[in-house]
Structure formats: C-alpha cells, structure tokens
Write a structure and sequence with these properties.
Elements: H1 19-43, H2 52-76, H3 79-105, H4 115-131, E1 135-136, E2 139-140, H5 142-153, H6 158-188, H7 196-203
Antiparallel strand pairs: 1-2
Helix pairs in contact: 1-2, 1-3, 1-6, 2-3, 2-4, 2-5, 2-6, 3-4, 5-6
Length: 205
Amino acid sequence: MANIRIKSQWFRTGTAKSAQQTASAMAFIVWRVSQNMLKQMRSAHFDIDIGLQYFAFTREVLVFLTQVVDRMAFERMGPEERAEFITALVRRVAEVLQENEDDLLGQPPAGQPSHYEVFIDLFNALADHYADFGFDAQGPDFGFVRYLGHRIEALMPQKDQRWVLDQIMATEVPEALHMIQHAMQDVLSTEVRAPRAARAGASGD
C-alpha cells in the first residue's frame, strides 16, 4: 500500500491549541485519509465512478472517520471542549466536501438540500448507529468497522459486492486508523518540535 504524508505537527508553539484550531487541522487530515482510501479502492479495481457514487462513498468514509475522531476526543478532552471540537470538525469536513461536490457535480437545484446539508444530515442519522459499537485503545470494534463495510457494500456494483467487505475491514480501515491515530496524537501534542531541516542537521543526516 502506498502511504500518504500528512502534515499534522505544530512547530511554532508549545502551548495547547484551541478546539477550533485542532478541528481545522483534523478536518484536513480526515479529508486526505478519505481520499487516499478511495484512491486505493480504485487501484484495487473496485468500480467507484466519478459522480454520485464517488461522493456517496466519500460521505460514508468521512462519517466513519469523524466518528472515530470523536471517540478519540472523548478520551482526551473535557465535555465542553469535545463538543466544540467535534462540532467544528464536522462542519469543516462538510464545507470541504461541499466545495468538491459543487465543483464536480454543480450545486443542487433550487429547493434541494445543499451538499453541506446532505452530509450533516447523514452524520446525524448515523451517529446513533455508530454509538452502539465499542471503541477502545486499539480502535473501533469489529461491529463498528463492519457497519461501514456493509454501507459501502450497498454502494458498489454487484460484481464488487462479494469482495468489498473484506477489502474495507482487512486493508483500508486499518491503514486509515493508523494515520488518524498518529495525526490526532500529533495535532493535540503541546511538545515543541524543531522544523524537519533542523532535526536532520542535528542528527547528522
């Protein structure tokens, strides 16, 4: 699997970031991870065509990843900070998604929900479903991941439905979780880190 490089470290300060700052950084990372998953699924010869299916897949993955980040935030933040963080995160993810959907598909007809609203509605609708599943230090439990897999399965052409659940559960989600877990740790860190060039010089690289 090809890895993507995601900037998630803060070099300028050793102070804590606001919930809004953290949410903005994580929204960018969640979007990048979702696009990496989509790219790898297509590279594995699953048919995900540019258009409605492409964005339906993206929405499902974004909801899953934001739910994962929310569980991580539950362990790391107080109730008020977490509420502010997850609200800002979901809204920013919805904004990025809308920008991309509007560019590729155009804005919905007058009187129809915006792409932003469609994502928010899906997030709210699935929040209670994902709440039924477990999450611990290792990440989401089997049911949590399988639920995403079954929702993706319903979006795929019949020829891919037999294989997609295993691809999601065994390959795509573990890699995505690895990136999200490391990014969340880095984004929340208050440790002052030297820029990469300075670290390389100090190590003699």
